């Protein structure tokens, strides 16, 4: 395919059309062809499936494809996207349906967890209604599976109906094998595919219901031949199906297809069902991002259709097709994962103000994105000795403090770098609210220091009778003038405890058992995820304690432990990544591995939700109403914490290698900037402009220093390694 150069000298792909529709980016691929997002001349988004050449060469396939598309056009119903156009005559046949910016069921279950009984009922009712409409038009789907079910905001949709029979015809002729997805294909199709009827789709529906409830198929995984044998000869595993749904699911999975209910009967058994039961906060955040991406796709630069005859897919060379696919790399990531909702910020060629744009559909680099400026000379530099790589750098007021879990702490003058105090003999484990917490050497007392190094302590009765390592097993959620909330892991895999404790006496006021299955992992994760980041999966504010346990957010009274509210479903089922909680103005903000959610602290009501981009958030920083998320591969994303709106996205150009400690990935917030540690082998730090994400400068660490960690105060960024502590002027640099 020919490529042009724009005004900045960047290579750009020529527009590609399938019929009158301009292709924007790939959405996926299957055994029969590729699916692309396309835009119509009237600015409508479509999903265009283009058939692979090897199938298009078969006359029988073309004949069946035409028949099935014509039948699919007769399908009407809310849960089936309409077929709007098709061409079976060209060298590459294609079919276009309306596009829904929504994830498929497979992605929803894998990322957000199983649906539960209410969600599965809503899913089953919608799928049964869709199948009833498909069957009424004389069409059998033949490949109903999680990847062919989209979970949209207003209900599920069944896609890819009307083409499987044509695919079956040519595939059976060439291979003699049954077509479909193992674990979802009815037994009669495995034995004799010519016997396929609408009842085969009902069998697939039963398998989908089990998948939605349990995350697995009723006939297990493994080699296709083994799975097919179990489908034909063995009974399904329905151990995870609730009793209320067991009779219906069992009847759908009957070996004898005449004993299965019709799709209409399944609908009658499940109705009425509430579609809102499918919409968890995680899914809503994902849908919001996809819809914003769809708006950006509609607003991307348009291309004039070629002069007649219309330039269709078949006029393109294979080399051109490969070039198109290669140029769509970033688009694929946005289509099959969480869409990129924030534009990359760079400076236009020749300088000028920073400009923002939606992520280019072709993933092209923006003009002027070159090597960022080098860092200015440090304001001061102080050598360190005797430190290990697990030390942390934190701010206690205006005092940078260098400390290590289970080790001592050193306070420095932020202006000169001079050491002003040191405290040893305390096992420090957390910095919170301008205080650093630790335990005495005998684990009998909780110790806390302020920015001047002044120490206070009180009895640690929450650990009475246990002399295990407190710095590994203890966590401070927060405190006011009278009360401190601690979390501890008891021993082995026993449940842990969250406890409210009187500061003056150490008396336990209340306690709640931690039901997390792996309490050891949970408490250690609490320690790591908050080291240097100023956030945690628990906090104290407004006379309440907020904490997470087993994917449930609890709000309890600080003095009595009485529950105020609980919120569930904010973390994917089975997730090992703890949620970090921050207080941002009038909101309680939850930062999870896959999404960000803002709640009303008093009621737990959701104010907004946004996907966590990158998908695995490794660090966060809050400053001036903006929340920065950092992740692997040098990504940094900024949100407005009042609205959840994405503001900008910057790629620093580094990558965190395997085994990198989470504690070194926490960014820091200063006045008008964010400091982000770099992890590309040479280490260092970058300063990002908080307004637009522009990289102000990058400091590279000497090769013998290892990873840096950062802390910020005012206009100064402090950077520490195991050998040196430095201060840089970040504001106005």
Could you write a compact summary of the structure shown?
The chain is of the alpha+beta class. The chain has 15 helices and 44 strands.
Secondary structure layout:
Elements: E1 3-5, E2 11-13, E3 17-18, E4 21-29, E5 33-39, E6 45-51, H1 53-56, H2 59-72, E7 83-87, E8 94-98, H3 105-112, H4 116-136, E9 149-152, E10 155-158, H5 164-175, H6 187-191, H7 198-214, H8 224-233, H9 246-252, H10 263-270, H11 281-299, H12 318-327, H13 329-336, E11 345-347, E12 354-356, E13 380-383, E14 392-396, E15 399-403, E16 409-412, E17 419-423, E18 426-432, E19 435-440, E20 445-449, E21 455-459, H14 470-473, E22 474-479, E23 483-488, E24 496-502, E25 508-514, H15 519-530, E26 538-541, E27 544-549, E28 552-557, E29 563-568, E30 580-584, E31 587-591, E32 595-599, E33 606-611, E34 619-623, E35 626-630, E36 635-640, E37 646-651, E38 668-670, E39 673-678, E40 684-689, E41 695-700, E42 709-713, E43 716-720, E44 724-729
Structure characteristics:
four-stranded antiparallel sheet; alpha+beta; 733 residues; Transferase(Phosphotransferase), domain 1; six-stranded antiparallel sheet; globular; 2 domains; 31% strand
What is the helical fraction, as a range of percent? 10-25%
For the biggest sheet, the summary is: 6 strands, antiparallel
Strand content: 25-35%
Rg, nearest Å = 29 Å
**Name of the CATH homologous superfamily of the largest domain:** YVTN repeat-like/Quinoprotein amine dehydrogenase
| End-to-end separation | 44 Å
Annotation, overall tally of beta strands:
44
| Total number of distinct structural domains | 2
- Looking at the overall shape, the CATH architecture of the largest domain is 7 Propeller
Backbone shape? globular
Structural class: alpha+beta
- Which parts are unreliable, with pLDDT below 50 for 5 consecutive residues or more? 1-13, 164-177, 306-369, 517-535, 654-664
CATH topology of the largest domain: Methylamine Dehydrogenase, Chain H
Give the CATH class of the largest domain: Mainly Beta
Round the mean pLDDT to the nearest integer and report it.
Answer: 75
Biggest sheet: strand arrangement = 3-4-5-6-8-7
**Count of alpha/pi helices:** 15
